[in-house]
Amino acid sequence: MEAFTQHIGTAAPLRRSNVDTDQIIPAVYLKRVTRTGFEDGLFAAWRNDPEFVLNQPEYGGVSVLVAGPDFGTGSSREHAVWALLDYGFRVVVSSRFGDIFRGNSGKAGLLAALVEQDVVERLWTTIEADPGTKVTVDLEHKTISAGDVSAPFEIDDYTRYRLLNGLDDVGITLSHEADIAAYEATRPAFKPATLPAKA
Amino acid sequence: MGRTLSEKVWDAHVVRHADGEPDLLYIDLHLVHEVTSPQAFDGLRLGGRQVRRPDLTIATEDHNVPTYDVDKPIADPVSRTQVDTLRKNAEEFGIRIHTLGDPDQGVVHVIGPQLGLTQPGMTVVCGDSHTSTHGAFGAIAFGIGTSEVEHVLATQTLMQARPKTMAVTVDGVLPDGVSAKDLVLALIAQVGTGGGQGYIVEYRGEAIRALSMEARMTICNMSIEWGAKAGMIAPDETTFSYLQDKPHAPQGVDWEAAVEYWKSLATDADATFDREVVLRAEDITPFVTWGTNPGQGIPLSESVPSPDAFANENDKRAAERALEYMGLTAGTPMREIHVDTVFLGSCTNGRIEDLRAAAGVLAGRKVAEGTRMLVVPGSGRVRLQAEAEGLDAIFKDAGAEWRGAGCSMCLGMNPDQLAPGERSASTSNRNFEGRQGKGGRTHLVSPLVAAATAVTGTLAAPADLPPVDVAVPENV
């Protein structure tokens, strides 16, 4: 995973709450077995609407999404994160994220920055007044700034550490293999196993 | 100080704890399906890694498979490739798989319990958010993304920050004709879709204790719909007697040891929760959704709410959008809403008791003209059981379609979908925009409401139907 320290880019305001992962990418786009190319499914139902924010020319080339509360609720599909990344987003800002979405973001290298709803509202106003406003997201200092707005954001320390260093979870965990083996030796005999199959 | 159920189960699975880091948790059971696993297996191959514990892993195909012509090759080539990919991965990595046509093929959250692989005190994960279903047994069970699927395949562990604890206590007795689904929909309407965020929830109280295992699964299934990390119910005699004759239940001395351990998991009397919510079962009536998230629900007896009724500006805007998408007008009685399609099935309500409840309503009655009904058993075994009990005949006589097992119309990625503008009453778990097919409109309902709605063609409860003179089989 690529390390993430600071990102500077333009932003799109998504003035909707409860944008669930079915809205971010509908299930029909989940049939692929590859890891890339999901940008065509991003917000698929809304992309046909000429009024939709990402269809406005002034929001071309954005890399920061500022969304309403409860972004990424619902399904566990990591494809939602991949679709945002494949489209070009590096940061999503919201006042509340679905838990699994936020976890998936940290794994895949998308920064999910948690801020107060008041900060979201001020960012919306700033971006809409000038869509060319550069938004700076500093993971080192956990701050987001755009125009006159400057605010802290929250992210858990461990996800921040991993993002800053571009670390791979499986590699970290396998360095604790001895702990895993020691735990396995203590598991009770009555715990079930899938093999051999019984019917 | 005492510990809660979730704290006991969590503590028993910590492989490694270090300050400032998430706990490394051991995973007892990993359920795998075709949609969220292919990229995880690719990751293993790229890293030259193996599946650490194939004997704690099981796969089935459910999300994108058709529910008819299951003996024929899958018509959609993209879906077929994904299913074939799972079969090849299972073979390459030595994982048990239940494929189309096998009695233990079906919705992944139905087959874990029916095989007896889901047991109290376990940790269960799957690349699917409705993994919370398994919490009904007193397990910590939650959905994970594909990166985490790869992590569990490679290490049989997950890094997880310890959640807070919440108690949802439901006192009293549910009225007749009110089911677990009504209860959980009423709860979500009260607490909101984000109300459980950051918590493992324990459902407790007299009304929860009185529920069957399958009804408990319905409750825990919907935990994710109000944002909870997981939902749990303490194991008790109901749990033990459900498990006793299941294929993978412990035997002999192992059974004795297991039950003794399971009994020790209940929340201690002096344990405290970070948050508590209390509901009165007597207050709950048949409940349906009117909007596009599971928190937008009201009693069936009420009318479509006005956006102006919401104080919060975001809620008001969301309600306006939802009414527009749903094609509804504020003030319309819910009972006057015409429904094109009734879907009975899913990991929420696709088990044998759900089918029995609906069959009890449909016996001697017909699906209304202009309405279709799909009945989709949660697994091959549920289908066989229903046929042994004659439920399939009741559904077919009523004019409903009797299908094979799978996720079907719950999620709009297989052939069972709503057309744009089509309206459903669905026993599934999500009424999101487009969830059941692009432009489709979903009302979440219980199996009883689904069956009554099929008969009238408008949202209805069984009590709304004129009586029929028919001998109903004993078990429905």
From TrEMBL, chain A:
Protein name in UniProt: 3-isopropylmalate dehydratase small subunit
Example of a GO biological process term: L-leucine biosynthetic process
Subunit details: Heterodimer of LeuC and LeuD.
Keyword presence, Lyase: yes
Transmembrane segments: none
PANTHER family in the cross-refs: 3-ISOPROPYLMALATE DEHYDRATASE SMALL SUBUNIT (PTHR43345:SF5), 3-ISOPROPYLMALATE DEHYDRATASE SMALL SUBUNIT 2-RELATED-RELATED (PTHR43345)
Gene designation per UniProt: leuD
One GO CC term on file: 3-isopropylmalate dehydratase complex
Pathway: Amino-acid biosynthesis; L-leucine biosynthesis; L-leucine from 3-methyl-2-oxobutanoate: step 2/4
EC top class named in words: lyase
Pfam families attached to this UniProt entry: Aconitase_C
InterPro entries listed in its UniProt record: 3-IsopropMal_deHydase_ssu, Aconitase/3IPM_dehydase_swvl, AconitaseA/IPMdHydase_ssu_swvl, IPMI_Swivel, LeuD
Record keywords, A-Z: Amino-acid biosynthesis, Branched-chain amino acid biosynthesis, Leucine biosynthesis, Lyase
TrEMBL record, chain B:
Chain residues that bind [4Fe-4S] cluster: C347, C407, C410
Region (Disordered): 418-441
Catalysed transformations (reactions): (2R,3S)-3-isopropylmalate = (2S)-2-isopropylmalate
Domain Aconitase/3-isopropylmalate dehydratase large subunit alpha/beta/alpha, first and last residues per copy: 7-457
Free-text function comment from the UniProt entry: Catalyzes the isomerization between 2-isopropylmalate and 3-isopropylmalate, via the formation of 2-isopropylmaleate.
GO MF annotation: an example: metal ion binding
Transmembrane feature ranges: none
Cofactor(s) for this UniProt protein: [4Fe-4S] cluster
Pfam families: Aconitase
One BP term from GO: L-leucine biosynthetic process
EC number(s) on file: 4.2.1.33
Keywords: 4Fe-4S, Amino-acid biosynthesis, Branched-chain amino acid biosynthesis, Iron, Iron-sulfur, Leucine biosynthesis, Lyase, Metal-binding
Cofactor note: Binds 1 [4Fe-4S] cluster per subunit.
The family this protein is said to belong to: Belongs to the aconitase/IPM isomerase family. LeuC type 1 subfamily.
Designated name of the protein: 3-isopropylmalate dehydratase large subunit
Top-tier EC class: lyase
Subunit record text: Heterodimer of LeuC and LeuD.
Record carries keyword Oxidoreductase: no
Matches recorded under Gene3D superfamilies: Aconitase, domain 3
Metabolic or biological pathway, per its Swiss-Prot or TrEMBL entry: Amino-acid biosynthesis; L-leucine biosynthesis; L-leucine from 3-methyl-2-oxobutanoate: step 2/4
InterPro entries linked to this entry: 3-IsopropMal_deHydase_lsu, Acnase/IPM_dHydase_lsu_aba_1/3, Acoase/IPM_deHydtase_lsu_aba, Aconitase_4Fe-4S_BS, Aconitase_4Fe-4S_dom, IPM_dehydratase_rel_enz, IPMI_cat
